[in-house]
């Protein structure tokens, strides 16, 4: 029996993994982060042939129909041709704080890149949406700083960095690369306004993604979306874009972790 912390159904072709609700939370990347952690811990991560998320508790803020499989709404089918090569001795803990300063993350990234390619690649709907954002906002990824500040319900965390430190890091980068544009992503509208005031014309943000004036509740919880699924697609598409920008300045926690995972390295990656 494969040892992994997911609901497994054994079939003649391999295991089907039906996701369970993680204890850490119900945010988009809280759920996805649980998946990659379980594959990192698995004896043989190649035995799963399909991932499904049928529980109505999963991705509730990111889909309209709670009776269907949520996983396939965002991710491609498993790439069965890819064999994940995981060293026998590897620290599988995923650091959530100061990732760039944790030595095990550099050993983990080659493995997580394989797991993502096999199990957690964005589907065509998400990739097409990312391409549309890039076209509509005329984004040159090789000449863009992405600056992702997550506030709202993170306000109680003692290590939440203020927007001023994000701006300071961007200013340091601009000293050496003066023509860069800045992609702002934040759930707080006042933070977006703050960055726009400092960096003015070089800034832009995705107007399709909602923001709030609240500093206590997550935007994915309090917003009444007409189309929750479109919000989920837009959120994942924006994460992919952020991860591919020349410079990434991001926050500590699951969303920031996945920007590193989808990037595949920590080059020009900053967590102030």
Could you describe the 3D structure shown?
There is one protein chain. The chain has 272 residues and is α/β, with parallel strands linked by helices. The protein folds into two domains: 7-123, no CATH class; 126-270, 3-Layer(aba) Sandwich (Rossmann fold). The protein has helices at residues 28-41, 103-119, 124-136, 163-176, 189-199, 219-222, 228-244, 254-263, and strands spanning 7-11, 14-18, 48-52, 144-149, 181-186, 203-205, 247-249, 269-270. The strands form two sheets. A five-stranded parallel sheet has the order 6-5-4-7-8, sandwiched between helices. It has a three-stranded mixed sheet with strand order 1-2-3, with no helix packed on it. Strand 2 (14-18), helix 1 and strand 3 (48-52) form a beta-alpha-beta unit. The longest helix has 17 residues, at 103-119.
* Rg, alpha carbons: 19 Å
Task: Note the quaternary state here.
Answer: single chain
Tally the structural domains: 2
CATH class division of the largest domain: Alpha Beta
Instruction: Provide mean pLDDT, rounded.
Output: 87
Low-confidence stretches: none
Helicity range: 25-40%
Please name the CATH topology of the largest domain.
Answer: Rossmann fold
How are the strands ordered across the major sheet? Answer: 6-5-4-7-8
CATH architecture of the largest domain: 3-Layer(aba) Sandwich
What fraction of the residues are assigned to beta strands by DSSP?
5-15%
How far apart the termini lie comes to 43 Å
- Topology, number of strands: 8
Instruction: Assign an overall shape.
Output: globular
Structural class comes to alpha/beta
Count of discrete alpha- or pi-helical segments spanning 4 or more residues: 8
Largest beta sheet, briefly? 5 strands, parallel
